[in-house]
């Protein structure tokens, strides 16, 4: 089934069921008010949502209306946890090669992962609002899963069974702020503003045979200013499956329902597949010529991230955002 959260003036929005063809939608308020509520009692609530989904697809759902992605918040507008992995080690290898840094062998055997901000996600068509182009503003096309409860120490098989939903991500990154933050040894904070998610989150069965071994075996398309810049396959070169990523997160802690785990930038070894983040393109330029010439995003730029099925139909709907300028940041002094 396909689920969305519609804007209603509240922080968490209103849960809705969306038709398979993304043309109609029906509110699910009689079943669960929010997606988090549904995740908290998934075994009881999901079958009811699935029944409503069947009615909607058969054009039998009362009170259905036209689906508009512009009325969507992120499927989970705020989440208890957002942990982003780096499952496409090719991307990591290119970044390190571009700066002449060695690639530790452990990166191929144990996932990289960081804890991101999860209190303020933005919707699929909401503007990316930032103050300064000099921050090196970049898009990052990813796939993510939403989990149910995962017990501490669960192995990959157990973890995989708790994957409830999948969605797409634009994990906005401020590339020129990253080096100084990483040098402090505490990870990303200012260099990772709010991420955006696809209009709908889907259950794994919606992907059919494309969902195999806890990976999505379909291309992820990135369109930057109306130009297709990348279509790498999300299943190819994914070194760590989603089940493995969830297992990694749950090694020493319980992972609770509504946790979001990202794949990291989708990347293929075959450079002809293009890129889903500008940094990767710049890394390839550095490796080839010693100079990165592709600029980061400029105010007014638009990025669209989407995944189509084998028949060319959109699965999750599109993330379609414009970069706009916020009021400048005023620093009032530094404190110890």
- CATH hierarchy class name of the largest domain: Alpha Beta
Mean pLDDT: 95
Shape: globular
Sequence of secondary-structure elements? EEEHHEEHEEEEHEEHEEEEEEHEHEE
Count of discrete domains: 2
Gap between N and C termini: 51 Å
Q: What features would you describe in this structure?
A:
- There is one protein chain.
- This protein has 336 residues and is an alpha+beta fold.
- The protein folds into 2 domains: 66 residues, no CATH class; 251 residues, Fumarylacetoacetate hydrolase, domain 2 (Alpha-Beta Complex), CATH 3.90.850.
- Helices cover 19% and strands 23% of the residues.
- It is built from 7 helices and 20 strands.
- The strands form 5 sheets. A 6-stranded mixed sheet has the order 6-5-18-9-10-12, with helices on one face.
- The mean pLDDT is 95.
């Amino acid at each position: 089934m396909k689920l969305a959260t519609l804007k209603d003036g509240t922080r968490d929005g209103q849960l809705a069921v969306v038709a398979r063809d993304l043309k109609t939608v029906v509110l699910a308020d009689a079943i669960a008010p929010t997606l988090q509520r549904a995740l908290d009692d998934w075994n009881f609530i999901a079958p009811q949502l699935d029944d409503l989904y069947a009615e909607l697809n058969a054009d039998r759902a009362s009170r259905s209306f036209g689906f508009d992605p512009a009325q969507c918040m992120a499927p989970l507008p705020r989440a208890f946890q957002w942990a982003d992995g780096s499952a496409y080690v090719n991307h990591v290898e290119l970044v390190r090669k571009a700066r002449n840094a060695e690639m530790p062998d452990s990166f191929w055997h144990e996932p990289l992962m960081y804890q991101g901000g999860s209190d303020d996600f933005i919707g699929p068509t909401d503007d990316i609002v930032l103050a300064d182009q000099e921050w090196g503003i970049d898009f990052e096309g990813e796939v993510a899963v939403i989990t149910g409860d995962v017990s501490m120490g669960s192995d990959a098989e157990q973890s995989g069974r708790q994957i409830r939903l999948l969605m797409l991500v634009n994990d906005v990154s401020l590339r020129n702020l990253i080096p100084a933050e990483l040098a402090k040894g505490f990870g990303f904070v200012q260099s990772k503003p709010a991420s955006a998610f696809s209009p709908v989150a889907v259950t794994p069965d919606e992907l059919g045979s494309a969902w195999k071994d806890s990976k999505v075996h379909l291309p992820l398309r990135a369109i930057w200013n109306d130009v297709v810049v990348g279509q790498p396959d999300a299943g190819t070169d994914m070194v760590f499956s989603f089940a493995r990523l969830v297992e990694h997160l749950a090694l020493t802690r319980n992972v609770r329902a509504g946790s979001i785990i990202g794949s990291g930038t989708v990347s293929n070894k075959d450079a002809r597949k293009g890129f889903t983040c500008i940094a990767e393109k710049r890394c390839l330029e550095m490796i080839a010529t010693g100079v990165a010439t592709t600029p980061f995003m400029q105010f007014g730029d638009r990025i669209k991230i989407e995944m189509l099925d084998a028949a060319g139909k959109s699965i999750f709907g599109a993330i379609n955002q414009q970069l706009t300028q916020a009021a400048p940041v005023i620093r009032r002094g530094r404190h110890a």
